[in-house]
Amino acid sequence: MLRVRIHSSPRELEQLRPLWESIRKNGQGTLFQDFEWNLLAARKFSHREMPFVVSAAASYGVAIVPAVRCRQNRLRLLGEELFDYRGFLHDGEEEVLRSALAALAEAEQRLEVVAVRECDRRALMEELELAPFSAAPLISKADISAEDFGAKHNRLGRNLRRFQRRGFELRVYNGKNSALLRSLYAAKAAHDPASLFHDPLRVEFIVEAARLQPSRCEIFTLESGPQLAAALVTLREETVRRFYTCYFCQEFAKLSPAMALLHEATRQSLAAGLDCDYMTGEQGYKLRLATSSMPLYRLRATPEQLARLIQTVELRIAG
Description:
Elements: E1 3-7, H1 10-14, H2 17-24, H3 35-44, E2 49-51, E3 53-58, E4 61-65, E5 67-70, E6 74-77, E7 89-92, H4 94-103, E8 110-117, E9 129-139, H5 146-152, H6 154-165, E10 169-174, H7 178-191, H8 200-212, E11 217-224, E12 227-236, E13 240-248, H9 257-271, E14 275-277, H10 284-289, E15 292-301, H11 303-318
Parallel strand pairs: 6-8, 13-14
Antiparallel strand pairs: 1-3, 2-5, 3-4, 4-7, 5-6, 8-15, 9-14, 9-15, 10-11, 11-12, 12-13
């Protein structure tokens, strides 16, 4: 028997923890699909986007669609503007995921998901509207060693040594350093009028998310006393380090402090046996270092398209 439920508040979402974490154990998704991060997003941003999370469970599989209702009269997935990668959690036969997605039609709103990674792409998405969105430049440890990477980009290594001769040190902090996170996001917002982090609630989300699992948030800095030349916020997973936010001080722009820091963090990651994910966007500075990229997609579906998914399930069951 298939059971489908809609969870419309953070409190109701908490009931999903065992099912959510059991699906995540098989390695699906990224840190952006972590239950604690999604629960925190539901709590922080519930006045902006109301949870409309669908769970489906049957003997032949389980699925979770972590959707929210937005002010723009549409559905998207939890994470407000702060999650680079979004996706559904699913284990078992495809029909159970179809049923969960079909339940979104009750909201009578269009679904838009940005961004779905190539490795999370599913056959049923082709029945909706799946279009190229961007890409995430990557470096795989299988493609290049730390030594070869350092030699290939030796000018960036020289820039780092120039900073060190000026008294700057490379330091690494974990997610417990809330004051550092707040200060670098404030500096980033001051530097960029269009920055997402003019919104203090987004900054507080990052600070609290980092505290949830401090060892999984690593902050690389290039600093001398109170002077911060560059900072890099990264998210550590079992086999990959994801480069989430980069900041640099304009005073040192000619020496490319952000690139020097990015280069050294990448070299250290490769030496530690980690792949590197530069995340959403094919900016030139990322492509300069990357060895490959992961295609990203935008998924769209009308309420009518979502409703038709259940018809497919019924036909398959009847057959």
